[in-house]
Amino acid sequence: MYAIVDIETTGGVNGPTRITEIAVFRHDGRQVIDTFHSLVNPQTYIPPFITRLTGIDNQLVKDAPVFSEIADSVRQITKDAWFVAHNVSFDYNFIKKEFSWLDEFYTRDQLCTVRLSRKIFPGYKSYSLGNICQSLNIKLEDRHRASGDAAATVKLFELLLQYDTKALIPVDFD
């Protein structure tokens, strides 16, 4: 199982920055079998440059659940699955930090679609999500929003699975 994740945040992973949106697609190696998506009230100010990038502002998230209210859903949809993301350390460390603020240790095995893309599709100038999607003709809608970026990462991951001739991606179908 794979949990393909994308988040939007109030800034970089260090400091008091928080998650503002999360999308997770649970994938069995063949297809998406479950999804979770939510805006998240970060309980902190969203800087204007983040709003310009994502379209997420303080007004949009004021009535959204705080992370503790969605933690069970995040825990469940990622349970017993590889945590997959484009630049996985960013998304994973944010979620791990959110769980640590709830006094909970969160751990998942991780797969990075940036690193996998470099190995499986060598030779591209850039492996940013936007550029690799363009290079591989993957439709990327709703850029810099969790569900749009996660959906594109699902398509990228499916191509990676298809072209992984070196067995870089752990596959354990039930």
From TrEMBL:
Top-level taxon in the UniProt lineage: Bacteria
Keywords for the protein's UniProt record, in alphabetical order: Exonuclease, Hydrolase, Nuclease
InterPro entries per record: DnaQ, Ribonucl_H, RNaseH-like_sf, RNaseH_sf
GO annotation terms (biological process): DNA replication proofreading
Domain Exonuclease: 1-166
Oligomer status and interactors: DNA polymerase III contains a core (composed of alpha, epsilon and theta chains) that associates with a tau subunit. This core dimerizes to form the POLIII' complex. PolIII' associates with the gamma complex (composed of gamma, delta, delta', psi and chi chains) and with the beta chain to form the complete DNA polymerase III complex.
UniProt cross-references to NCBIfam families, sorted A to Z: dnaq (TIGR00573)
Function according to Swiss-Prot or TrEMBL: DNA polymerase III is a complex, multichain enzyme responsible for most of the replicative synthesis in bacteria. The epsilon subunit contain the editing function and is a proofreading 3'-5' exonuclease.
Stated name of the protein: 3'-5' exonuclease
